[in-house]
Specification:
The chain is an alpha/beta fold. The chain has 10 helices and 9 strands. Strands 1, 2, 3, 4, 5, 6, 7, 8 and 9 form a 9-stranded mixed sheet that branches. The longest helix has 20 residues.
């Protein structure tokens, strides 16, 4: 597709029983000063007030559907079928664009990228479950290029994918529960480079989603290891081993101290700059 100064950007949101956070997500997209955008929301057949929210906000949504699905990657693949943007990003129903100028700033950088760069990302601000800021994640590609072969270290929320990448690889592998985004990016970035957009926080992301729970953290690490093997890495690296060790420590704390106290302890460590 020919590059334009204002590329169409598609935002795809997957949600299930998300009426507590979805409105903030939709509002953050609706407030974007960038007008050449489209919003697609795939609901997995919610039983709470999610569908009512979708109906209320239908003026801001280009396409939405509510029906049972097979998980987040199945939902995102459904959304891709209805997308038309030159660039596509995915955010969770618990996430939101950090300010009203995110897509405007991002679009200016996307227009400058060479055609062979098909992934672009900024930073994501991690929040605790109360919505308080912890710290931003996301580092320049040259710093994390080697580490990426071992662990998912690109903040996927708000990251931009060129349409040609998604068409070439056929979207996400739905056999993954947590690491399908890592698998998709690995297919591209084991050979090519990504672009880091400096001085740009794209989204706020609340802790407490599927991959942030300690029990699911172990599944995430196993799935990352599966991705490594699929892409030719027979042995795990030091970064994977260290990250897996942290997950086990969090799981032990969870079992010893309970969920609430463990979250408070981890948040305190994060607030002083220690990442557990």
């Amino acid at each position: 597709m020919e590059k334009t100064k204002k590329p169409l950007i598609t935002v795809i949101v997957a949600v299930f029983n998300g009426d507590g956070t979805l409105q903030e997500c939709i509002s953050s997209i609706a407030r974007q000063t960038y007008t050449n955008k489209e919003l697609i929301i795939i609901d997995g057949g919610s039983k709470d007030g999610t569908v009512n929210l979708l109906k209320t906000n239908s003026n801001y949504i280009n396409y939405w559907v509510s029906e049972p699905d097979k998980g987040i990657y199945n939902a995102w693949n459904k959304g891709l079928l209805h997308s038309t943007g030159e660039w596509v990003c995915f955010i969770g129903a618990d996430d939101f664009f950090w300010d009203s100028n995110v897509l405007e700033q991002m679009s200016k950088q996307l227009a400058k990228l060479p055609i062979d760069i098909r992934v672009a990302y900024g930073q994501t601000m991690l929040l605790n479950e109360d919505g308080k800021k912890l710290y931003p994640i996301g580092e320049p590609w040259y710093k994390i290029k080697k580490r990426f072969r071992q662990v998912m270290c690109i903040p996927h929320s708000g990251a931009m994918h060129r349409r040609s990448l998604l068409e070439q690889f056929g979207g996400f592998d739905e056999s993954f529960r947590i690491a399908g985004d890592y698998d998709l990016l690995m297919r591209e970035l084991k050979t090519f480079d990504a672009a880091f957009i400096p001085n740009l926080i794209t989204t706020g992301m609340r802790q407490g989603g599927i991959s942030s729970k300690p029990a699911n953290g172990l599944l995430a690490m196993r799935e990352m290891r599966r991705v490594q093997k699929l892409h030719g890495q027979s042995l795990p690296g030091l970064a994977w081993i260290m990250t897996t060790t942290k997950v086990y420590i969090r799981l032990l704390l969870w079992r010893w101290l309970g969920e609430d106290l463990t979250r408070k302890v981890i948040d305190k460590y994060k607030n002083i700059g220690l990442r557990v």
